Amino acid sequence: MRTVGVEEELLLVDPDSGDPKALAAAVLARAEQDDPGQDVFEKELFGQMLEFATHPQADMAALADEIVRCRKEAARHAGQIGCAVAALATSPLPVSPSLTMNERYQWLADRYGIGTRDQLACGCHVHVSVESEEEGVAVLDRLRPWLPVLNAISANSPFWQGRDTGYDSYRTRVWGRWPSAGPTELFGSAERYHRRVADMVATGAILDEAMVYFDARLSARYPTVEIRVSDVCLCAETAALIATLTRALVDTAARDWRADRPAPDHSVSVLRLAAWQAARSGLDGDLLDPATMRPRPAPAVLRSLLDHTGDALTESGDARNVEEAVTGLLRRGNGAHEQRRMLERTGSFRDVVTECVRRTQG
């Protein structure tokens, strides 16, 4: 059974006003004081962000429990210094991001200017174990058309600087400003993958290999593929669903590779359009069907995803839970849909943040 790990970035906010607060250093100090040597929580690009990483898990129920536990621990540490955590991919309220000061982040700020300062956006990265780099690259080639569907499920960033953007996942539009971000062409082999990465670094436009911000990539630290398209999800249950579907997609892709079934040869231009469509309308409109790259209603595309990964989900014992989770998701909507419903009900971005803090803590 492949193991899965999840990294989530959370927004630190004032519990009364809802305004983002640059208190990550203080929260991390409190976490270290409570648990010396802890390796769960880390700093991020901005002081208003806190990241945690789960341990690798083969059992998806155990992974879901750990996501909930990490969120609660983050909330506890934050509460001890007078702030709160919210699983929001962008801040509904206006914010002036505070850069975390270290040599790497300062280089990014100097190199990319306002493009760096506009990157206060929280994502969810999923790591799935692979047996080799060759298998990993074969998986990356076959995952490409399905990644926008994962983004539509996770979409949780409709607001930016106190305004409705018209997007379900505005975070992905912000993230796409990095020069190395986005979908990739087919690699075909690990050797060609590494050659392309080396060519990108050699241009000098990016700092190093860690700045290759593909939608999905080989991890430089772990024997995993790292899928990076998802917003941080409002509900922990949705994060667990994303992780479970991602493992099933990896299993299915690896099986297709071993059976010599070719990877879909969609162009990067079309994949970018699929990503834009998913970010724009999430689950409320059409998505581009991963097989045909033509519009289909989002529920039908989600059904195609379940059909595509059905064998893998059955073998892992996750099929029933995923079916129920997808049914619930379509009924209530993704995080962006829920945030808009909160705003319609309360008329206040502050109240949206307050409610999202409560949801984050379960």
From TrEMBL:
It catalyses: L-cysteine + L-glutamate + ATP = gamma-L-glutamyl-L-cysteine + ADP + phosphate + H(+). The keyword Phosphoprotein does not apply. The keyword Transmembrane helix does not apply. It comes from the Bacteria. Keywords: ATP-binding, Ligase, Nucleotide-binding. InterPro entries: GCL_type2/YbdK_subfam (IPR050141), GCS2 (IPR006336), Gln_synth/guanido_kin_cat_dom (IPR014746), YbdK (IPR011793). GO terms for molecular function: ATP binding; glutamate-cysteine ligase activity. One of its GO terms (biological process) is modified amino acid biosynthetic process. Belongs to the glutamate--cysteine ligase type 2 family. YbdK subfamily. HAMAP family: Glu_cys_ligase_2. This is Putative glutamate--cysteine ligase 2.
